[in-house]
Amino acid sequence: MQNGSYLRVRNITLGYNFSPALIRHAGMSAARLYFTAQNPFTFTKYIMYNPEVSSYNSALTPGVDYFNYPLAKTLSAGINITF
Q1: Which of 10, 30, 57, 61 is the most exposed place for a label (fewest CB within 10 A)?
Q2: CA-based nearest residue to 68, from 80, 45, 51
Q3: Cα 32–Cα 35–Cα 38 angle in degrees, nearest 5
Q4: Does the predicted TM-score (pTM) go above 0.90?
């Protein structure tokens, strides 16, 4: 028996909109630079991979850990440009 409490950060997005005066000479009307992280942090004392345990296709076994894979961490960055 383990404490299955946890705090998970699911999505973080940071973005910066460039000033129109700064990008106008490059022929752009708008530009935005962004960085996104999905599932970057999980805070828990649970010793297995994922504190969100499954019920393995049965409502009679809720909260039983069947060794689920950990959630994938995804990092992405990009730029949106409007001409």
Answers
A1: 57
A2: 51
A3: 140
A4: no
